[in-house]
Amino acid sequence: MSDLHSSAQPATVETSRRDFLKQTTAAALATGVASQFAIARGAFAAGDDTIKIGSIGCGGRGTGAIVQALSADKNIKLVAMGDAFQDRLENCLKGLQQSEVSAKVAVDADHRFTGFDAYKQVIDSGVDVVLLTTPPHFRPMQLAYAIEKGKHVFCEKPVAVDAPGVRSVLATCEAAKKKNLAVVSGLCWRYDHGVRAALGQVLDGTIGEVLTIQASYNTNGLWMNPRKEGWSDMEWQLRNWLYFTWLSGDFNTEQHVHSLDKVAWAMKDVPPISCTGIGGRQVRTDPAYGNVFDHFSVVYEYANGVKAFSSCRQQDKCTVDVSDHFVGTKGTCHTKSFDVSITGEKEWKYKGPRPSMYQVEHDELFASIRNGKPINNGEYMSKSTMLAIMGRMSAYTGQTITWDQAFNSKEDLTPPKYDWIDLPVPPVAMPGKTLFV
After folding, report:
1. Helix (H, G, I), strand (E, B) or coil at 278
2. Which residues pair with 54 in a beta bridge?
3. 86 contacts 114 by C-beta, under 8 angstroms
4. Which residues are registered as beta bridge partners of 311?
5. What is the mean pLDDT of residues 251-279?
6. What separation in angstroms does the CA of 185 have from each of 188, 191, 358, 370?
7. DSSP structure class, residue 125
8. Model pLDDT, residue 338
């Protein structure tokens, strides 16, 4: 596709996400011998021991993921980049060329791709590993194409914004297992040494039987790019993707998924039977903030009687609380950033090393590729994403939603087409009026 800022009009991409997902998921599952596409130990696309990386998404998280990936292995290079916008790609590349990993950056001009189909061009450019850090809406289709083409993947969280997307990702990750391909999730707390130790204690029974969980992600607002003259609706929304449900899934999905993933972890990744949520748009009411809420509170109920009380807020000048508390019959496990401890019958506090969890996830990804035992986080990253989407569904509609209802939902947030088009913003959800689909 043509660069957005060139004089030529971009070509229209007529294929919808739902059609693309059907095609690519079926192709991935129908592939024959898995080893045909798997990268054998020490045999990479370059014909030597070099791992070639392609990055799709060049924003802040994308830039960070590139640096971490290039720091994870001695013989590795970034050889392709893609983004919807030329300016973001060039700014990211310039920063990388001036960074501590500059010697591993080898992105020729003909390996810099822009537009909606840039992800295909990156994946088809001869890379071994793909970093997916685009807005969450695009991850199901991009992951499906990467696995179809035999690439290992680092996939940021969340992995989808609606149930059809989650179902697609689950199918894709099953295909990845058959092809012996790695899929590592950006749910980074699963790679934090302290939280791993703490949740290990919970699962080992140190706090006894889990009775209830409190998970909070109450924080301040995030960035916003004021609309500029000449931006189409699509460009404005993409450059402010946090604030549009079709792109981010709302922040209960995009941000709070970190906390909900720890809830799921403590519950052995067994889904709840239902949830009941409330939420709204109380402070962040300017149309510049799209159609997302600024606060949620959701109660998840499990078959064994456990209730998880979940809350999140993005409002400035309010108390910040990002913490989780797992209450059991013998004690309570607390995780609050780097303060990880247990109080109760058996006091415990994590005092071990705490390397960057963002780095650890890449270290373990590339080590697993080198060892021929690729990691696949597909199941839990999909279920935790669905847990977050389920909470949004309940808060948006004002209804109690069961897991089965949520997982089988037909709500598809795909826009009419991917092009620089007029794209009206749907109204903000109104509990009691917005219908479950």
Report:
1. strand
2. 80, 130
3. yes
4. 216, 297
5. 98
6. 7, 10, 10, 18
7. T
8. 81
Judged by phi (left if over 0) then psi (alpha if -120 to 50, else beta), residue 115 lies in left
Structure-block tokens of residue 375: 């990691």
Residues 60 and 83: beta-carbon distance below 8 Å: no
Instruction: Check: CB of residue 395 under 8 Å from CB of residue 256.
Output: no
CA distance 175 to 140: 13
The closest of 15, 18, 14 to 410, measured between CA atoms, is: 18
Of how many residues is the chain composed? Answer: 437
pLDDT at 16 over 70: no
Cα–Cα distance measured from residue 194 to residue 357, given in angstroms and rounded to the nearest whole number: 10
Taking alpha carbons only, the member of 83, 85, 84, 112 closest to residue 97 is 112
Q: How far, in whole angstroms, is CA 394 from its chain's centroid?
A: 21
Domains of the chain: 17-189+361-378 (3.40.50.720), 193-348+385-407 (3.30.360.10)
Higher-confidence position of 28 and 163 = 163
Q: What is the mean pLDDT of residues 394-400?
A: 98
Instruction: List all residues 6 or more positions away from 25 whose beta carbon is below 8 Å from its beta carbon.
Output: 144, 168, 171, 172, 175
**Angle ∠(248,180,122) on CA atoms, nearest 5:** 50
Give DSSP secondary structure letters for 177-223.
HHTT--EEES-GGGG-HHHHHHHHHHHTTTT-SEEEEEEEEEE----
* 8 A C-beta contact, residue 80 and residue 54: yes
User: Within 13 Å of residue 410, how many CA atoms lie on the same side as its CB?
Assistant: 2
H helix or E strand, kind and range, residue 405: helix 403-407
| Residue 19 confidence (pLDDT) above 90 | no
